[in-house]
Specification:
seven-stranded parallel beta sheet, Rossmann fold, single chain, globular, 12% strand, 290 residues, alpha/beta, 7 strands
Length: 290
């Protein structure tokens, strides 16, 4: 993959997966606008990246909160002012939100989660559409997490916001089909991040023993999962993924490296999307009308 001469926005870039992905894109030659809420962490990342940048590359850091209504337009404007173009948008910033049953959480906590996890990426994408469409090959990657693929008791705000984000990605992909902008959602898998550690610290009484056991088991493979998640995002930024759009892709469990060979069949199907399971899908004939 080469992104030389191209520019990318990565939100939530100061730590965890976002930080490593920013380094990966910089290594591929991209100019970067990196954002997070903490200036010190952004400064640290800039210092880390400078030695690997080519003379024609630059990294610009912007302190920003994805939940703020003006953040999306401001980031796109800053990127265009710095680099003159925008080619890749990665919506990585997210918050876990309240842990507990619906009765134990507050509506205002839900509002904060949706402001960051859904409305923030929506506003960023809205501001990015026009500059992304100026040249072919625009890419939008939205990080969904496992909350979108099944119910997670105790994490209803997070799960609902991430499920909405995936459906937003699917819908936006159809709306932008004529503009050569690919939009995909990525489930990176269980990574060793601050969010994961917060869940572990909550304990079985709050998050459930079965889920905690599953999380701990997957965390043992975190290095392998991280490598796959970074590789998937790099793949989605590059030419090889041309024409693949509107999909929810699991870095760990989907054989996405083979998808270009079956691109037409893949895109003609609703596989790797959010869809309702009906009776005929599970040999439950009593549930469907003929």
């Amino acid at each position: 993959m080469t992104l030389q001469g191209k520019s990318a926005i990565v939100t939530g870039a100061s730590r965890g997966f976002g930080r490593l992905l920013a380094a990966r894109l910089a290594g591929a030659g991209a100019n970067l606008l990196i954002t997070a809420r903490t200036a010190d962490d952004l400064d640290s990342l800039c210092a880390q990246l400078r030695p690997v940048l080519r003379p024609d590359q630059a990294v610009v850091a912007q302190v920003a909160d994805s939940a703020d209504p003006d953040t999306g337009e401001r980031l796109v404007a800053e990127c265009l002012a710095a680099f003159g173009r925008l080619d890749v948008v990665v919506g990585n910033a997210a918050q876990l939100g309240p842990i507990g049953t619906l009765g134990e959480t507050r509506p205002e906590d839900w509002a904060a989660v949706f402001a960051c996890n859904l409305f923030g990426p929506m506003r960023l994408c809205r501001a990015a559409i026009e500059p992304l469409s100026r040249q072919p090959g625009g890419r939008i990657i939205l990080m969904s997490g496992g909350g979108a693929t099944g119910p997670l008791p105790g994490f209803s705000a997070y799960g609902a916001s991430k499920t909405a984000l995936v459906r937003f990605a699917e819908t936006l992909a159809l709306e932008l089909a004529g503009k050569a902008i690919a939009v995909n959602a990525v489930a990176p898998g269980v990574l060793d991040t601050a969010m994961t550690r917060t869940i572990l610290a909550a304990g079985p009484g709050r998050v459930g023993a079965d889920y905690l056991t599953r999380l701990t088991r997957e965390l043992a493979r975190a290095d392998e999962t991280l490598s796959e998640a970074l590789a998937l995002c790099a793949f989605l930024c590059g030419r090889e993924s041309e024409g693949i759009t509107g999909k929810l892709i699991s870095a760990r469990w989907d054989d996405w490296r083979q998808w270009p060979q079956a691109r037409d069949r893949l895109m003609a199907s609703d596989v790797y999307t959010l869809r309702r399971v009906v009776g005929r899908d599970r040999d439950f004939a009593e549930g469907d009308r003929s």
